[in-house]
Amino acid sequence: MNYDLILVRYGELTLKKKNRKMFIGKLVSQIEQALEGKSVVVRANRDRMYIELDNEDAYDIIDRLKHINGILSMSPIIRLRKSEDEMKRVALELESTFNKDDTFKVEVKRVDKSFHLKTHDIQQLIGGYVVRETNRPVNIKQPDHTIMIEVRFEGVYMYSEVFEGNGGLPLGTGGKTVLMLSGGIDSPVAGFEIMKRGIEVEAIHYFSPPYTSERSLEKVKKLVDIMAEKTGVSIKMHIVPFTKIQTAIYDKIPDGYSMTTTRRVMLIIAERLAKSIGAEAIVNGENIGQVASQTLTSMNTINQVTNFPVLRPLLTYEKNEIIQKSMYYGTYETSILPYEDCCTIFKPKKPKTQPNLENVEKYESNIDFEPFIEEALKDIEIYHSNSEEKNSKFSDLL
Ligand code: ATP
Ligand code: MG
Predict the structure, then answer these.
(1) End-to-end Cα, the chain, rounded Å
(2) Of the bound ligands, which one is closest to the alpha carbon of residue 179?
């Protein structure tokens, strides 16, 4: 079928009275970015948005907008003249896409009150016609399909399909955070979840060459690219050289506590970066009880280094739910590539599940972390999503 438009229904932003204009503006720019290169025109008004399709495939466009935050649902629309015959013709066309014994009904929205037929008359006319022509059963209460007819000033819009959007709020309407991004399954999902609330992220990745390879870094860059592409924004990643810190921890901190200290230093660095870029919280993929560093005691001991908010969108999810989401967002296949991340290499044999704060502080007093932290922050490399620049200076170190 040849569709002329896509109707985009807004999500929760309809609740935000005062900021509505700004919300809609952000949504338009993300949609335009996600549809770059496509021959479309985006027309937004207060209550809904239309995307004019210049011979583009409606389903391809809908697929590209599936992960844009702030979209409640989308429908591909056929636009026709305000004529009874045209409505009948299109109704049969839509009907022909339904499965054999499925039920249907006709629903009418009459915005143009000057149209010569009333809502009920249109329903009767078109519904009756489809039944006569096709024998399709009607079900008013719970139809399998609804043929929607909207009589508007500029013409009649007809459709029968509604595709769910990602919901949430448009990105960039809720401030900024630093996302701790490893190459695993969890942290990209945490990123998507936080972005769903309209919050922008800049990623931070701790990189320990040569213990972690260029390929593992490429994998994290790929995750950033996927997140950016799906959500229709550009994402920056700060790559922190972490080798010296990891080596110092490995040498000086007892095995059982090294993970705790590593996490603590990561948090200190994330907080400093956050403050320098105007981010108001840190986000990570922690999940309560998943591993030794994510018991309540561990989280408490780790968190003592900061009073900056640390948001954990996956805190209570089942691993299975996280995997499902990762598949939905499209990061799963990349996340499960086998390249090691920095913590796998330095993984302690028996990490403490109940690390005691006093002990941690005592061990850490053997290392002066401050110069290491300053150096790491100074040597941060930036990666921009979907940029060609894949040869950072790290490749020279390998
Ligand atoms: P994932 O690796 O997908 O995040 P995980 O269960 O392997 O999940 P951990 O390795 O225990 O998680 O790490 C917990 C969190 O710490 C991660 O979700 C991530 O936010 C952060 N993190 C771990 N390693 C790094 C890293 N090298 N760079 C940035 N953040 C990291
Ligand atoms: Mg991990």
Answers:
(1) 54
(2) 1
Domain range for 158: 5-164
Q: Which residue's C-alpha comes closest to atom 23 of ligand 1?
A: 182
Among 177, 185, 186, which is best to mutate for testing ligand 1, by the most ligand atoms less than 8 A from CB?
186
Same-domain pairing of 34 and 141: yes
Q: Which of 102, 133, 164 is the last residue of a domain?
A: 164
Residues flagged as binding site for ATP: 180-181, 205-206, 263, 285, 294
pLDDT beneath 70: ranges in the chain:
13-16, 340-345, 387-398
Residue 260 lies in a domain: yes
pTM listed for this prediction:
0.84
Residues 21 and 29: beta-carbon distance below 8 Å: no
Identify whether residues 157 and 181 lie together within a single domain. Answer: no
Please give the DSSP secondary-structure letter assigned to residue 138: B
| Two structure tokens written together for 166 | 């990602």
Query: Quick one: 358 and 225 in the same domain?
Result: yes
- Other C-beta atoms within 10 Å of 344: how many? 14
Per-residue pLDDT tens over the stretch 50-96: 999 999 999 999 999 998 999 999 999 999 999 999 999 999 999 99
Query: Which of 179, 180, 306 to probe ligand 1 with, by most ligand atoms within 8 A of CB?
Result: 180
Nearest ligand for residue 262 CA: 1
Give the binding-site residues of ligand 1, using a 6 Å CB cut-off. 180-182, 184-187, 204-206, 284-286, 290-291, 293, 341-343
Question: Can you name the residues that pair with 195 across neighbouring β-strands?
Answer: none
Atom of ligand 1 nearest to the CA of 284: 20
Answer yes or no: are the C-beta atoms of 9 and 48 closer than 8 Å: yes
Distance CA 16, CA 331 (A): 31
The total of structural domains in the chain comes to 2
Chain segment 229-274, per-residue pLDDT in tens: 888 889 999 999 999 999 999 999 998 999 999 999 999 999 999 9
